[in-house]
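Good morning C.,

I know you're traveling, so I'll keep this short. The sequence:
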Amino acid sequence: MLKRAFFIILFLLLCRAGIVNASLVEVETSFLKGDYEKVKAIADADMADATIDKANLAKIKYFLALSHLWLKEYSDAKKVLEALHEEDLDKNFRDKVSLGIIDACYLNDEYETALDTAQRFIKENASSDYLSLVYLKLARINLKLAQWAEAEVYLKKVINDFPQSMDVYIAKQLLEENRYFAVQVGSFALSSRAEQLAQELKEKGEYAYVVEITDQENKKYYRVRVGKLSSLSEAKHLKSKLSELGYPTSIYP
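The tokens, ready to paste straight into the viewer:
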């Protein structure tokens, strides 16, 4: 009887592990499909289940936080990531969580907090595999704060210290950007479409122009931008105005 009971318990434990793994796979699959609401629903159910393996649950929480980011629920993402960061994680996973916190702060316009978090990451993780990416994030944060000189230092560091990094191309592009804020309202493969949109905006009294860029595969794109502004607050005001007119907007740099 005891032997039979042992195998029954073992069977149930193995089934439970299978359910947990299946849940994580379902979360990952839903995330990759862009079904972020489903990720949230699964994660909420799993977090209420005290029997779920902690390692799998940590990964589920991470996908939950990423889903919040994609849904522009930045404060919710930050809350999940900060709590996750306090858990017993392996170094690589903890680094990813830290990067998520930086992104959540940055996307929520909490630039000073993002800056402090990124600088602390550099100080505490000198051997991290993500250093070039964090330096690039520091550059982006400084650009938003109109701290052009500091941003340039970080961009050059990415280029000089991590020449094989995937971040080098973006760093070079940002280094070439003019030192003012603009609102981008479109990016096209055809220059004619970009010029048409720029002309439409000009007829509405906006200072619109086309910026030509070349990507890593040597393909050209034509970006339509509006304004050359000295402060982020002016750019945000213009962004809001153009959004109300129905244009998809983002602030550069």
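Safe travels,
E.
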